Amino acid sequence: MKRVKYRGIGAAAAAVVVCAGAVAIPASGADSSKPGHGGTAKIKMVVNDDGLVFTGPRKVERGQRLKVVNRTFPGKVGPHTFTLLRKNRLPDTKREMKQCENLKLALCENIAKAHEFDPSTFVVNKPNVEVGRKGWDKAFGRTGDSWYTEKAGEHNTRRVSANDGRTLYYFCVVHPFMQGKIKVVK
Length: 186
Hints:
This protein has 186 residues and is α+β, with helices and mostly antiparallel strands.
């Protein structure tokens, strides 16, 4: 079992202060990558002029590989998750985002539990959470698909197993203002 140390909620709070006022940064349209043709689509966690954001394609083919890459400096901004959830579950107010980053929002607490996060030691015992079909397909409720990262350059690749026509919404539980979406196409 891989155990990784979570650098703490304080780092997330610091990142929120650095990115003050950022509520829901449109994330996934910045990269012009096109879906399909057997290639690998990439979503990157980056720091740019807007602060911490996800960048990547707007579309991905079902069955295509989706690679999520951490291009930030977690020692400065804290760790991240790439977590699928339904659109109506995305934290969208400052209050919800603050509750989420402090694990006071039930959804965010469920995500931390799924990652086997120990708040007394800040250790994440399960960086990869895979529910439903193998690959990216299951939006979080009580369970769902999620990946935790705390190292620059670290990445996770899974096939997209969600049905055609579905939009996958995602966010970072540590930095809940980091949000994006990607449409699954034929």
